[in-house]
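Researcher: Go.
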Amino acid sequence: MKPTAPAGGFRGPVKRSITIAGHATSISLEPGFWEALEVAAARRSLPLSALVAAIDGLRIEGEDPPNLASAIRSWLLEEVRVNRPTDA
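Model: Structure:
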């Protein structure tokens, strides 16, 4: 099967500022990742900044932590894998 472009086409990263533990930090993610992150936060009844702070906490516990944007993308990929519907 031939791949198709995402709805709205391919779009580059969007930089947003988020406060984590009282400190503002900028994160650049593609719009689809921002949307998925917002859905994940709403699903948990958390503010976006609280979910990002939790992901950041998990990230820095690692032996060789990636940058925060990479950690968020990796976390979202796992979130999709875990929550995808199973075949009937």
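Model: The chain has a mean pLDDT of 91.
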